[in-house]
Amino acid sequence: MTTFNPVIQEVWKKAEWLAIATHGADGPHVVGTWGDILRQINGDLTVTIAAPAGKFNKTEQNLKKDPRVEVLLATREVPGARGPGQGCNFIGTAEIQTAGPYAERVKKLFPGIRGALVIHIQSAEAQL
What we know:
The protein is of the alpha+beta class. The chain has 4 helices and 6 strands. A 6-stranded antiparallel sheet has the order 2-1-4-5-6-3. Strand 1 and strand 2 form a beta hairpin.
């Protein structure tokens, strides 16, 4: 089971944004979301997190063929080893869910959204 060291937990609590990368036939594809939205949906960091999936059509197409995902999150509020700012990345798999508990949690907070991008974190590491 993946564990999150104190630095990764602190970055999660203060990250301004996250970039989520998938890979498709035409190469990498990146989408993003705000850290405060993810904390509102998920609370504390766990091995499975959900993000609102508005359109995310390209992301969904890519995940159907290759469910691997990489997530980069960062904040200037956590000191890094070499200066201001700390980042970390998560490696795992993901899927778009339009029904079920994650989708319902997201839809409750964001009425009209089509579902949730559900990310299953397999490893996490600090970047600096």
